[in-house]
Design a protein that fits this description.
Chain A: This is Sugar ABC transporter permease. Chain A: It is a multi-pass membrane protein. The structure holds three protein chains of three kinds. Chain B is built from 19 helices and eleven strands. By secondary structure, chain B is of the alpha/beta class. The termini of chain B are far apart. In chain C, helix 3 packs across helix 12. Chain C is globular, with a radius of gyration of 23 Å. The chains are: A mainly alpha, B alpha/beta, C mainly alpha. At the A-B interface, helix 7 and helix 12 of A face helix 4, helix 18 and helix 19 of B.
């Protein structure tokens, strides 16, 4: 039914989104690209001259660069594993006819509504603080020494905080997917004497594959640019132990006010993000094809 | 009763949502320190005296504030009419022509009353570019009760080696008392303020006269090793994430035997409403190395300035004059007591017998401020002015990165030598990039 | 889902679910409780759970320091405004993609999503400069535009996957009856699409409400939303645990309540085409 007429209408309908997003992407990106070739520091105006690949060279050879790259991947990977794993467990539980199911569901999704800044502040001060935090009180009560979470395990602490925020999201989507599972198929399998584990592996998991893919895709988009949680809790430290790529660029842009260097970092991050995007599109292409 | 106050507050807020009655609205960017929050609470007085001017407050944490005002002023964004800035920024910004001169703040302002050391830090080529709201140097605060219990006496002018011994002696981890609390949170205005002060007073310096970083020198090694060892033996857990505020909270709740930090802390730790140990605090000068006549040259002021190109200059000047005047000081004294007035800016305050009586720390504060020498902060000659910071634009970035390394050393993640090596390499890179090292 | 469990299992699962649920919710509960304590009690060791002198003084103090209501209004304007504008742009696009797909549709969709992967801080300075020149810094309009653009890809995608599940036969039938495009949308599509649109809106409001980079960097006073409000409480001087808790509670309460009341609606559409 896709006639020429409807096709041009369809184009017309897509135009605003495409044009706006193209503008939103291209204008700043081309400016960033331009800045990345300049020696441009906000604190020293009037000195903007052509610098060639100087900024790129400095950014890539920055001792923090490789660490930041690794940290970014570790952060994204771990949070994905924790939130999808935990979310799956939570979804399976919530899918059972338990008492007070609705209330438990409310409790579980709550962290998703909390703004990242608040959750980072709360975790940092009320839980992970080595003197006043609740974890320290607990350790004290058990006669153990208090752990200073943010300096002895900075990346792990951030992974915990971020996972806490994203687990509810995964649980929600997976729960919705579970509820559409074909009940008869399940019962038939049960009749045939398939064990719970087998039923899970052969019926539930394949059914959830698409949902899991979606969770991974959306979470990756947000996790690649985790920033507020790091700024509030560890400021990337100690050393570079919890610096990710976003945070490294941030230190260039807003701490050293080196617009040129930050732009070079931004371009590199864009390239990396696109590599991830291509990878994800492959993944989605396989799993989301209809 | 409290509920009704809350409701009242909410209603007032609704009314304030539309400050349309005023002709001029000043947007003031400030830091969320106690003294500034008090200023905000008292600002009704200014608005009453200046009908037609309404105030709009943007209160932020220090680093956020710095980013936002710096971005705004460098790009001429024009979002703020009055900015709260440090003395580090004032001269760098004045040189760029970003700030308006503040030579004429009215007849009764008495600019000559501003302490000379403070005033000089805000003057560029003979012109004042910002008005100081409060000023600080560093001092040592200690618990007299704990010292007595341990049979120790604090000298007026202690050395670092004495502090080391005393701190280890006082520490009683079972009781939750740590001998000394020092800054460890990475940042040029956090741990580096203290560590640079320590280094200055132990004979180290940031750069030689050719701008080569000096972290490979023995003085730095000695200073950093001293700091890391001391904190390991006598510091609180998690010291590498403690900044000024965290240490203040620790000291106020009685967890620290000693604390070396900004002099402004003195009024908070002696305030019985906030501090459990208010009655037992003694003060001394920042310690110094054996045979070295430097106390680190810590000198910091929070100042109010007006960005060049502002369209509300007269109103902004009126506000700055109000906030940094003698009359403001008296108003705070009347409302909250003399011990709570913003310290460290005016000579007349330290000559005021009522202040001397109310503030046990007045004398040490004055001595500490006068001992600071921003032109010659280190024992050896240096190409920069400064103190607990170095007066070049690149310092924010470098200081914070170096602070990260030292913070990691404090946390025990890397050794002192590694930290110094990394600091040296990073600083050399940045100084080369900035064109200082040819 | 009306599967039956043995009573024993049901109890076991119930207990497990409640324990995990409470554990996940605990940080929020603890924050709310702490906000009613005095500063001294907030850091007491061992901490008291319920038996302390409940006080509202932290809320009074927070209100005295910042104009809470105004930040809430700004947050509402920005998140709801950007959602409304986003909807106007995204619905036609998603509709076109779902009902007149071409070879490039998937590619365009993925490209849109990839724009969300740009690190905001990398393009912050250009946006800042453009906004300065257009006079959009610290304005609700400017922030609404940014939020619209930031969340547009997610909106398009979510709507697209939802629309795609609407059976095409119905549209065919409507067309056979001679329905015009407008009627097609209004009478056929809209009723079926409402749950998906509602859920998209909710998710978008939540994302816009909690966004903390642009909202913080492009505002000063006039347009500052709740994210900026909470920024002024990160580590102020002295003891601040209770005040921080009060401010945190105030910052998350509106969206949490909205989220809770509409969670069924949110969940129903939150499938991104994952359920098939």
């Amino acid at each position: 039914m896709a006639t020429m007429h409807t096709r041009s209408i369809a184009r017309l309908m897509m135009a605003p989104s495409v044009i706006l997003l193209l503008g939103w992407m291209l204008i700043p990106l081309s400016m960033t690209l331009y800045f990345s070739f300049l020696r441009y520091n906000l604190l020293m105006p009037g000195m903007e001259d052509w610098a060639g690949v100087f900024n790129y060279e400095y950014f890539v050879t920055d001792p923090a660069f490789v660490t930041a790259l690794v940290n970014t991947l570790v952060l994204v990977g771990s949070v994905l594993v924790i939130s999808v794993g935990g979310g799956l467990l939570m979804a399976l539980l919530l899918n059972q006819p338990i008492f007070g199911q609705g209330i438990v569901r409310l409790l579980v999704i709550a962290p998703f509504f909390v703004m990242p800044t608040v959750s980072a502040l709360v975790w940092k001060n009320m839980f992970m603080h080595p003197v006043y935090g609740l974890f320290a009180s607990l350790a004290h009560g058990l006669g153990l020494p208090a752990i200073d979470w943010l300096s002895s395990a900075p990346l792990l602490s951030i992974i915990l905080i971020v996972s806490w925020q994203w687990l509810p999201f995964a649980a929600l989507i997976l729960l919705t997917a579970l509820q559409s599972l074909d009940e008869e198929q399940m019962e038939a399998a049960e009749m045939d004497g398939a064990s719970a584990v087998r039923r899970f592996a052969h019926i539930t998991l394949p059914h959830l594959a698409r949902a899991i893919t979606v969770v991974i895709l959306i979470e990756t988009i947000f996790l690649l640019s985790v920033f507020a949680e790091i700024l509030v809790t560890t400021s990337g430290g100690p050393g570079y132990d919890s610096t990710n790529l976003s945070y490294l660029i941030y230190t260039q842009a807003l701490l050293q006010f080196d617009v040129g260097g930050a732009s070079a970092g931004g371009i590199i991050a864009v390239i990396l993000a696109n590599i991830v995007a291509i990878f994800l599109i492959r993944l989605i292409g396989k799993n989301l094809e209809t | 009763m409290k509920l009704s106050r809350l409701l009242l507050g909410t209603c007032a807020a609704v009314a304030l949502t539309a400050p349309a009655l005023a002709d001029t609205t000043l947007t003031i960017a400030t830091v969320n320190n106690g003294d500034m929050i008090r200023m905000q609470k008292l600002s009704g007085d200014f608005e009453a005296k200046n009908p037609g001017i309404a105030l709009e407050w943007v209160t932020m944490e220090e680093n956020t504030l710095r980013q936002k005002v710096t971005t705004d002023i460098a790009t001429k964004g024009g979002q703020y009419d009055v900015m709260t800035i440090g003395n580090y920024e004032v001269r760098i910004w004045a040189k760029q022509g970003w700030l308006l001169p503040l030579d004429d703040l009215g007849d009764d302002y008495d600019a000559d009353d501003i302490m000379p050391a403070i005033r000089q830090g805000l003057t560029y080529e003979g012109t004042l570019y910002a008005a100081p709201f409060y000023g600080e140097s560093s001092m040592l605060m200690y618990r007299t009760d704990l010292f007595e219990k341990a049979g120790l006496t604090m000298p007026d002018d202690p050395t670092w080696s004495f502090i080391g011994e005393a701190a280890r002696k006082i520490t009683d981890t079972n009781d939750g008392v740590y001998g000394i609390c020092l800054r460890g949170k990475a940042g040029w205005g956090e741990n580096m303020a203290f560590i640079t002060t320590l280094a200055n007073s132990m004979g180290a310096r940031w750069f030689d006269m050719d701008w080569h970083p000096q972290f490979d020198q023995p003085e730095w090694k000695a200073a950093l090793q001293y700091y890391v060892d001391l904190m390991e033996d006598a510091g609180p857990p998690g010291a590498s994430t403690n900044g000024f505020n965290e240490n203040l909270a620790l000291f106020q709740s009685g967890k620290c035997g000693m604390w070396i930090d900004a002099t402004v802390a003195a009024s908070f730790v002696t305030n019985p409403a906030e501090s459990k140990v208010a009655e037992d605090v003694g003060f001394a000068l920042t310690p110094h190395g054996e045979g070295i006549d430097k106390h680190g040259s810590w000198l910091w002021t929070w100042n109010l300035g007006i960005p060049a190109g502002s369209e509300k200059v007269d109103a902004a000047k009126a506000f700055i004059a109000w906030a940094t005047s003698k009359a403001y000081t008296e108003m705070v004294a009347e409302k909250d007591g003399w011990a709570n007035v913003p310290p460290g800016t005016r000579t007349s305050l330290y000559e005021n017998p009522k202040y001397q009586e109310a503030a046990a720390f007045a004398d040490v504060t004055l001595k500490a401020i006068n001992a600071a020498d921003p032109e010659n902060p280190a024992v050896e000659p240096v190409p920069y002015v400064g103190g607990q910071w170095v007066g070049i634009p690149e310092f924010q970035g470098i200081g914070t990165a170096v602070g990260q390394q030292f913070s990691a050393a404090l946390a025990g993640n890397i050794t002192v030598d590694q930290a110094l090596q990394n600091a040296q390499r990073f600083t050399e890179r940045e100084m080369t990039k900035g064109g200082y090292i040819q | 889902m009306a599967r039956t469990l043995t009573p024993k299992r049901k109890v076991a699962f119930t207990v497990l679910a409640w324990v995990l649920g409470l554990l996940i919710f605990f940080p929020i509960l603890w924050t709310v409780l702490t906000s009613f304590k005095t500063e001294g009690e907030a850091i007491a060791n061992p901490p008291s759970f319920l038996f302390f002198d409940w006080t509202l003084e932290n809320y009074t103090e927070v209100q005295e320091r910042s104009n809470y209501l105004r930040h809430v209004i700004n947050s509402v304007v920005i998140s709801f405004g950007s959602t409304a504008i986003g909807l106007l742009i995204a619905v036609p696009a998603a509709w076109a993609m779902a009902f007149s797909p071409t070879k490039r549709t998937k590619g365009i969709l993925m490209w849109m999503l990839s724009t969300k992967m740009l690190p905001a801080v990398g393009v912050m300075m250009p946006i800042y400069l453009i906004f300065r020149d257009l006079g959009l810094l610290d304005t609700l309009l400017g922030l609404t535009i940014v939020m619209t653009m930031v969340n547009l890809p997610i909106m398009v995608w979510m709507l697209y996957t939802y629309f795609k599940e609407i059976p095409g036969d119905i549209l065919e039938a409507a067309r056979m009856d001679g329905a015009q495009l407008g009627q097609e949308i209004l009478y056929v599509l809209a009723p079926m699409a409402v749950p998906g649109i509602a859920s998209t809106c909710l998710l978008n409001i939540i994302l816009a409400w909690n966004e903390a980079f642009w909202t913080l960097n492009l505002t000063a006073a006039d347009a500052a939303p709740l994210t900026a409000f909470i920024a002024s409480y990160s580590s102020p001087e002295g003891l601040f645990w209770a005040k921080l808790s009060a401010a945190s509670t105030m910052a998350i309460a509106p969206i949490l309540i909205l989220g809770w009341f509409s969670q069924r609606q949110l969940v129903r559409g939150l499938t991104f085409g994952a359920v098939k």
